[in-house]
Structures are given as C-alpha cells and as structure tokens.
C-alpha cells in the first residue's frame, strides 16, 4: 500500500467511525423527551456530544459534506432552543408529555432535525459509496 493509499484508508476508517456516531447522537437528541417525570430534560449534554463529533468529522470532509454538517448543527441548535423555550413557556402535560399548546412547535423541531439527519446520511453514504436506499429508523422516544 502506497503512502497515498494508506492516507486515504485512514481517512475512510475515521469517517466510518464518525459518520455513525454523528447519526446516533443526532437521533438521541431527536428522541430526547422534553420532560421526564414532570422535570425538564436538558438537551445540552447530547448537543455538546454531537457538536464534538461534528467538529472532528468536519476535518475529514469536503465542502459538500461539511454543508450537510452545518445544516445538521443548525437543526441541533434550533432543537435545543425549542426545548428551552418549551421549558420556559409551559409545563408538562399529562404523563409528562409536551403541553398541547406547544406540541406543534415540538413536533416541527423534531421534523426539522429529521430532515437534517436524512440529508447528512444521504451525503455520508454517497461519500462512502454505499449503494441502495436508506430508510431512517424510527426509534421509540424515551419518556
């Protein structure tokens, strides 16, 4: 293996580790409940872990992939802000659910994050030359 091939292999290995980490952490944030046992759930630690993985991954990516990472980070920051706003503006509904008055805001933020995750996964799979379609998993939300 030549030096260039070895370098490409190292980059491919790092991407193969970080792509799934970014996706899994983004899904953790997407599924994170707003309330747990009537207590506010702070999304900060999950968003910080995601930001760390994105910063590492961006080093290995080209402009196109980094654009999808930027979109993902924007959706993450919007989601965190939405959760904080829900905490400030409402109380937990029955069973710790998001109050009906802000439920659409919550669902809209989750959909925005879903779209950003899908855009990133599509770009990441293309970068790794993974063929076939990808269908996002619907992981049960913690409650």
Tell me what you see in this structure:
The chain has four helices and two strands; from the N terminus they run αββααα. The N and C termini lie far apart (50 Å). It has a two-stranded antiparallel ribbon. Helix 1 packs antiparallel against helix 2 (44-58) and helix 1 (3-31) runs antiparallel to helix 4 (100-127). It has helices spanning 3-31, 44-58, 63-89, 100-127; strands spanning 35-36, 39-40. The longest helix has 29 residues, at 3-31. 69% of the residues lie in helices and 3% in strands. By secondary structure, it is mostly helical.
Essential attributes:
single chain, 143 residues, mainly alpha, two-stranded antiparallel ribbon, 4 helices, 3% strand, elongated
In short:
This protein is an all-alpha fold and 143 residues long. The protein contains 4 helices and 2 strands, in the order αββααα. The mean pLDDT is 91.
Question: What does the average pLDDT come to?
Answer: 91
- Largest sheet properties: 2 strands, antiparallel
Shape: elongated
The count of helical stretches stands at: 4
DSSP, total strands: 2
């Amino acid at each position: 293996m030549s030096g260039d091939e070895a370098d490409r292999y190292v980059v491919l290995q790092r991407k193969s580790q970080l792509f799934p980490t970014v996706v899994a952490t983004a899904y953790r944030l997407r599924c994170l409940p707003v309330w747990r046992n009537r207590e506010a759930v702070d999304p900060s630690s999950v968003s910080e872990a995601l930001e760390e993985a994105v910063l590492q991954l961006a080093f290995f990516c080209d402009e196109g992939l980094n654009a999808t990472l930027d979109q993902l980070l924007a959706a993450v920051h919007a989601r965190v802000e939405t959760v904080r706003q829900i905490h400030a503006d409402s109380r937990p509904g029955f069973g710790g659910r998001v109050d009906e008055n802000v439920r659409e805001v919550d669902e809209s933020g989750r959909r925005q994050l879903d779209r950003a995750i899908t855009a990133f996964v599509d770009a990441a799979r293309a970068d790794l030359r993974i063929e076939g379609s990808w269908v996002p998993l619907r992981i049960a939300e913690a409650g």
